[in-house]
Write a structure and sequence with these properties.
The structure is a homodimer of 512-residue chains. The first copy, chain A, has 512 residues and is of the alpha/beta class. Chain A is 29% helix and 26% strand. Chain A contains 14 helices and 26 strands. Chain A binds chain B through residues 1-4, 8-9, 11-12, 15-18, 155, 178-179, 181-182, 185-186, 188-189, 193-195, 219-220, 314, 316, 333-334, 336-337, 339-340, 362-365, 367, 393, 395-397, and chain B through 1-4, 8-9, 11-12, 15-18, 155, 178-179, 181-182, 185-186, 188-189, 193-195, 219-220, 314, 316, 333-334, 336-337, 339-340, 362-365, 367, 393, 395-397.
Chain lengths: 512, 512
């Protein structure tokens, strides 16, 4: 016996909340019965367009009602959704498409141009618009309807979610219906009460952090309110206009929402819960948020694309005083079903309070990396995902993440692997050495910072190097600031740049 | 990837709530760390007593801390718990033991005598006391500790729960770690908030209705408060003394608790939720309960031993007026993950409102009946358990159970199969014909009633026939009342007694 299939969640929602609102997107409102039928029709159109079981369907589009339908339609026919991060540079998008080898690329008005370029480069044979209104590209709606296959197994891969890889090559994290559904069951605490949930999806749906809640809302037959992009005022308006109860916002976004000049004018009485992840919430920000929104509860989840939810910091621990306080810097408690072990470098289980690598076994783990058995074997060992994150577990079981083995920066909710940025910098002819690190940033959590040493007799300005990077990698990955070093960077015995020393030196110099 | 193993729930509870109270039983209070260790020790003792993977361990005991430990210890070593209904007649207990073929029978002070008789009859080789204090029988604690095997698979059978069978032969419903854990995930709504749950277990732990919540409380690292027997005042005292938040009570028990003369003196302020099942709650009873306990929420679950939870009637539908009212007679909505179909006699899906057999596919289904492939094949077809219950689904997805195909009576929360009672009656030499039905009863929900026709020239009083039954079947199964018929009972064309006609006739005669 396994967890219900993603498609069965849609069927159940249409059964128990047939005339209830399923998706509110702009002026469009659809019931669960309509959404179920539209999703099934989309599934038939995909079959008609030649998508078969196991085929990949890339999606390059902003959040929308159709994006949600596409995820479930693809699951219905046993195909594999491969959503592409819309903020990537064109070259990176192409790289993902070549890796996924999709049969079809679904796009929308905003990303049609990039989609056509990807097609022109030969990385995908067919491009179709996901939104009904046709542009230069015809809509998937114009495809012939094909016959639906029987529902597949819940353990069939249903999506590839790409993470930047430290090796440079993108890694497609494979999830299936089981891992996505088990994640919702296991992390139920993050939702508080799921009853009559009206959920504003701000996080982009190419991220597991959005997909997880698309599945959760569908399981509970709630109402999806997808927003195509993050804008503080649009979030506030979406909550007020639609009596939204839940929203996911990274701490950076919470701050920007609170800072919105019209914040005080908005009606946020329906809001019950703000869910955040990617980083702990600063105490000053929480205090501000509680003062501004005293009726709202907060829930933090910690996880990775590879694991989905590992820990949850419950609402009642979002306090700054009293007996239950003191956990705000932690990532919370292991979700029921997530077996968390902190392991020392020799593989032993760390004592409480002792640092080690956070490892997790759980029903929500990926099945592996797409066509990358070496990377899978390195990460998924003995049934545990080795997160690469360094942390500790306290006496009460709370997990605190203190550093990342994988040399990753989280800026504004996006993961940036230092090595990718370093690779881009090294392509500039003047660069002799470089090291990319995250520096604390009040708005983005961390900002991407590079320390570089130029070759003798060369010149380059920070502006020039940043602009150079932006032509090669996504703008959010490019350094925001650069420090020039006249001396060689500090190296470990093994020849690795000692980033901790660089961070310490910058801190001493007050470079922050 | 599957759901966490039952044993992992214990491990996690010891991780995240090590010094929190795990079990309060009488004067004994144990933390989760202690409970984990005691359970592991018990598992080692079972191995030492010769219990291996797949062996059955019968349990004939009242609810206790040790009963809870035993369930998880047996799961830890991959053995199979076979708890025996303590209210059965000795002959019935023996029958179950012969069917389960246990390696060991665990018992306690209250049931040691019956256990020894079962052993003397050759139905089990070893009897050991579960409670530490030894009587005539030595405690399992005195066994040598054996070496623990590796943790088994979550799909290995971990318990056999016996239901009376319409065929006369007892049927052992096989559940595994997966089905028990998925049930908790899927029926989360029944718990309301599981945070800091302190749960009074009144239902006997040989019932799925108790075991399901033993698993739930463990998953959430809450506090178990097992009571050895139902007594209204003991329930009230257990809630007040231990700040209990949750209790399971069938509607019959709710009425008796409210009727308790000392009810008004008790402090029930900690109670958040009353969970009930087995039958809908009468509107008058709910009204009384809401008036007496305005701060308490109610949750109904409907299911069978074979399915565990099928539907949940949420707390906010426990109302007698307003827009959301009108669902009290229903059993609620399909749990997320429970795919419910109402099927007409030709196998088609019934229209909304149309009667049919309630069928369910779910992660919480049994894997089958123990050593009974014919019964399994008859009940579990195409992945659906055919419940035998007749009902309908309304436009909003709520399921109402109107009758039971299986000719079963639910009296005081216990299932009684009419055929078992009829079999007992037929053994009396004076009985020519009989039909056993359930009649509405204000306290027990239904009472067992028999309509009999005596053979010509014989005599027997109701008292005599009831006493006769009690020597052969459990007291709760014996008729509470008997109507004598001078004319043959109404038969269908196929020669089956038409019980509906008998019920209607009794209603007309005001026999209720």
């Amino acid at each position: 016996m396994s967890a219900p299939h993603l498609w069965e969640l849609v069927e159940r929602a249409a059964l128990v909340n047939a005339s209830g609102e399923a998706i509110i997107f702009g002026d469009s409102r659809t019931t669960w019965r309509e959404t179920r039928d539209a999703t099934e029709t989309l599934a038939m159109k995909l079959v008609g367009a030649g998508v078969g079981r196991g085929d990949r369907v890339a999606i390059l589009a902003a959040n929308s009602d159709r994006f949600i339908q596409a995820l479930f339609a693809i699951a219905r026919i046993g195909a594999i959704a491969a959503p592409i991060n819309t903020r990537l540079a064109l070259e990176e998008m192409e790289g993902l498409a070549r890796d996924a080898e999709p049969r079809l690329l679904l796009t929308d008005a905003a990303f049609e141009k990039q989609a056509l370029t990807i097609q022109a480069q030969g990385a995908v044979p067919i491009v179709a618009r996901l939104d009904a209104v046709s542009g230069a590209v015809s809509s998937i709606d114009s495809a012939q309807a094909g016959a639906l296959p029987p529902l597949g197994d819940a353990s069939d891969t249903t999506c590839l979610l790409y993470t930047g890889g430290t090796t440079g090559r993108p890694k497609g994290v494979m999830h299936n219906s089981d891992s996505l559904v088990m994640n919702v069951f296991q992390s139920a605490d993050i939702l508080g009460s799921p009853r009559d949930m009206r959920f504003v999806h701000v996080a982009p749906m190419f991220h597991i952090g959005a997909i997880a809640y698309v599945v959760a809302v569908t399981m509970h037959a709630g109402t999806h309110i997808p927003l195509p992009a993050f804008d503080p005022e649009a979030v506030l308006n979406a909550i007020g206009a639609n009596q939204a109860t839940h929203v996911t916002l990274v701490p950076t976004m919470i701050a920007r929402v609170l800072d919105c000049p019209t914040f005080a004018d908005k009606n946020l009485s329906s809001l019950r819960r703000i869910i955040y992840g990617a980083s702990p919430i600063p105490e000053t920000l929480l205090t501000r948020a509680i003062e501004a929104l005293p009726h709202v509860e907060f829930g933090q989840s910690y996880g990775q694309t590879e694991t989905i939810t590992i820990t949850v910091l419950p609402a009642q621990r979002h306090i700054t005083s009293g007996a239950l306080a003191g956990k705000l810097k932690s990532a919370g408690l292991p979700a029921p079903g997530a077996m968390v072990e902190v392991r020392t470098s020799d593989g032993a289980i760390a004592a409480r309070g002792e640092l080690g690598e956070i490892c997790v076994r759980s029903g929500s783990l990926m099945s592996g990396y797409w066509r990358n058995p070496e990377a899978t074997a390195a990460t998924l060992r003995d049934g545990y995902v080795h997160t690469g994150d360094i942390g500790f577990m306290d006496e009460e079981g709370f997990v605190t993440v203190v550093d990342r083995l994988k040399d990753m920066i989280i800026t504004g909710g996006e993961n940036v692997y230092s090595v990718e940025v370093e690779d881009a910098l090294f392509r500039h002819p003047a660069i002799a050495e470089c090291a990319v690190i995250g520096l604390p940033h009040s708005e983005w959590g961390e900002k991407v910072h590079a320390v570089v040493r130029l070759k003798d007799n060369t010149r380059a300005s920070a502006e020039e190097l940043i602009a150079f990077c932006r032509t090669r990698i996504a703008a959010f990955k490019a350094p925001r600031s650069i420090t020039f070093s006249a001396t060689p960077l500090p190296l470990s015995g093994a020849g690795k740049v000692l980033k901790r020393e660089i961070r310490d030196a910058l801190a001493r110099e007050g470079a922050r």
